[in-house]
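Please check the following.

. . .
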Amino acid sequence: MPEPDPSDPEASEAHRQVYDPYAAPEPIDPFPKNPSVTHRSRDHSVAAEPWLNQTEFAPDANDVFGAYECPPALSPRLPALSPHELAEHSVWDEPATSSRLAGAPDPQAMTWFRYYLLQGSRTPPLLTWMITGVIVMLAGPLAIVGTLLNGLGGDAMVMMVILGPTIEEMLKIALPLWIVEKRPWLFSNGLQILVCALAGGVAFAAIENWVYLNVYIPDPSPALVAWRWSVCVALHVSCSAIAACGLIRVRNGMLRRGSQPQLNDGGPWIVAAIVVHGLYNLLAISLNDWF
C-alpha cells in the first residue's frame, strides 16, 4: 500500500487514524450498514462492545416462540423432568437472580426452597420417623460394608490411621447425609439426624468388635475384650455424634439462608470426627503391646 502524501493533511490524518495504535479512534457505528467498511476501520475499543450500545429489540414476527418461551429443541424434554429436578436447577437460584441482587423472586416462581417447603407440608411427621427407623435398621448392613473395606490389604499404618477412619465415619452417616443433601424434608428435626448417626455408630462398633474378637483375634485377653466393648464403642458413638452435629449444621444453614443445603457448613465437623478416629487408632497401635 503506497504511503500517503505528507502534503495532504487529510491523508496523513487518515493514515494516523488507521495505523497509529496509540491514537484514539473516532466513534464508529459498531454495526455498520455499509459493507465496504473494512476491519481496520472499525472501533475496537471497549466502548464499541454490543452490550454497551443501546439497541432496540425487534422480535421476529415469524418466530412463534419469540423471546418468552423455550426453544423447540428443549420443550419436548421439559415434561420428562421431575418436579424435583426442575426445582433443583431453577433459574431463580442462580447467583445473578439472588434476592440480594434482584430482590425477591416472583410469587409464582418455583425456587428450590419453596419446593422444599411444599414437600415438607406434604410429608406427615409420622412418615419422617418411620424413615428414621428404617435408617436405624440399615445402619448394621452398612457397618458390615465398612468393616470389610477396613480389612482390605495395603499399608497397615495408612489404612488404620487415614483410610479406615475416613471410610468408617462416612459410611456411618451415609444415609442421613444423602437425605439432608437431597431430600431434607424427610427429616422434620435435627434429633432424627442424631438418632440415625448414633445408631450407625452403635451398629458399627458391635459388628467390628465381633469380627475382631472372633476372626482377627481368636483368643483375645479379658483386658482386650473389656477395652473393645467400652472404649471402642464409646469412640464410634462419639465420632458419629460429632459428624451428626455437622449434618445438623447443614440443615440449619439451609433453613437460615432459604437455599439448597451446603455441605461446607458441616464439613469441619465431619473432618473432626475422622481426625479423632484416626488419632485413636494411632494411639491404639502404640499401646498394642499392653494387651
About this structure: The chain is about 55% helix and 0% strand.
